[in-house]
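Proteins fold reproducibly. Next comes an illustrative record:
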Amino acid sequence: MNSEKEFAQKIEEIKTMASLQGGFLKQEQIEEAFAEIGMSGEMLAPVYDFLKAKNIGIGERLSDEEILSDEDMDYLNMYTESLLELPDLTDGEKRAVYMSAMAGERDAKRSLIEIMLSDVVDMAKLYTGQGVLIEDLIGEGNVALTLGVEMLGALETPDEVPGMLAKMAMDAMEELISQELNSKKADDKLVEKVNKIADAAKELAQDLGRKVTVEELAAEGKFSKKAIEDAIRVSGKKIEDIE
């Protein structure tokens, strides 16, 4: 394994570890993890930068007020209150659930999802501030849980269960953020094009002393007739200098 792949793997490992610890890592955990690939001291600077960007605390978890918007806080308070009704299991009881879920027992799978719900909340906090509401992040993570509990048969030991489900939930959140980002880029590009067509229409209208037609604007050669018609439609027919 080359150094870049080793580094990427360690990043994924500590990110998962942080999510299962409530959103923080001990400094010795970080140092120990990266010592395995020969990184220490100042070499860990990019690791700490990554953890900061992901809202992962060092030594102690960041407060919700530090990382969440007021809207996210309102939803989270309501949601976490509903989780208080779920049973609080010991580590031994959780392990028994993992084993039963791996064996395919339906009730155990349901209990396993309940066990992981609070962890999904902590995972979602790692992805706030990236254009997606925490409500949607949690929802996507919970969907991943329902899919993940059906895939436990491939695991070798119960100890692998929480890590696998956490990774699936985080991957789902990252995919949601990526989709939202791509959608925003597409929307921004479309708005930019509409604005350019509106500016061109305004300039031509000033030259002609009246509103212009689609055909006249297309004849200028900057935009096709279809592009102009699409811009008119997207703007709700509010490009005022086009008839």
